[in-house]
Recover the amino acids of this structure.
């Protein structure tokens, strides 16, 4: 496993490499990341994992500062997984050149997390644009827990580069909580609440098919979720996976949620 700390060395390393799989991460590697890495190793000859907490995608400075970091442990895990290359850039390395075009979301894309986290996806797309241009992977592997992120990046990256963005299933713990680096910030009591929220979501989704008006049903269930679990809810919405438009049919649709526990923002989709 080669650890690379700047883009000049990375360019030299990548010169002769073809069929490269890329797994972008912000560190705090968990089983969800491991699944993406194994998928990349299966489909590509070489695998590169990046570890970079991108400041431009945080619309809250405290959230950026609190984001869990444990690079030493990350490298131990990545070594066991036999990753070929690990890229750990500094911010000045990624942003030494200004983008030629400012990233702007269309009005129809300002939904779900984009509605509540202004500038977040613009930051995500910008950094992934820079990383993809630098790495030029054959495939980029992303988890579907961050489905809106996957949806927006697939549209942007595949239009601009020959790289394919591959969607991978959400990995959950034994209580069905979607794995996330942010979970490390939660106390045991809050993890119990998160598990209860997933149980409630499963029940809500199961009953969606019986509803005449899904929007009214979800409004009622949102109030119940907040009261029962003592959470702050950003949204609970049922949307089509292909278009991310609000859906009135069960086919190709999912329940999307974003909520706060201990001031930690969690997202999921079922």
């Amino acid at each position: 496993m080669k650890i690379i700390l700047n883009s000049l060395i990375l360019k030299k390393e990548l010169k002769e490499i073809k069929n490269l799989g890329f797994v972008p991460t912000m560190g705090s590697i968990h089983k969800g990341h491991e699944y993406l890495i194994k998928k990349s190793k299966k489909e590509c000859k070489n695998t590169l994992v990046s570890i970079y907490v991108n400041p431009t995608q945080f619309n809250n400075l405290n959230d950026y500062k609190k984001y869990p970091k444990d690079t030493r442990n990350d490298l131990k895990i990545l070594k066991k997984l036999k990753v070929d290359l690990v890229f750990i850039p500094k911010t000045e390395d990624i942003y030494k050149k200004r983008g030629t075009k400012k990233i702007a979301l269309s009005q129809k894309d300002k939904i779900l997390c984009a509605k509540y986290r202004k500038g977040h996806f613009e930051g995500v797309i910008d950094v992934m644009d820079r990383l993809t241009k630098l790495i030029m992977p054959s495939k980029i592997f992303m988890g579907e827990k961050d489905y809106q992120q996957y949806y927006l990046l697939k549209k942007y990256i595949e239009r601009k580069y020959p790289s394919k963005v591959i969607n991978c299933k959400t990995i959950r713990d034994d209580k069905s909580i979607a794995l996330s680096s942010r979970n490390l910030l939660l106390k045991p009591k809050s993890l119990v609440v998160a598990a209860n929220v997933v149980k409630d979501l499963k029940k809500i989704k199961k009953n969606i098919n019986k509803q005449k008006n899904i929007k009214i049903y979800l409004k009622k269930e949102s109030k119940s979720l907040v009261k029962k679990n003592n959470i702050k809810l950003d949204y609970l919405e049922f949307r089509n996976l292909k278009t991310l438009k609000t859906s009135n049919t069960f086919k190709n649709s999912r329940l999307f949620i974003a909520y706060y526990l201990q001031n930690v923002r969690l997202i999921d989709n079922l």
In short: Residues 188-208 form the longest helix (21 residues). The chain has a mean pLDDT of 95.
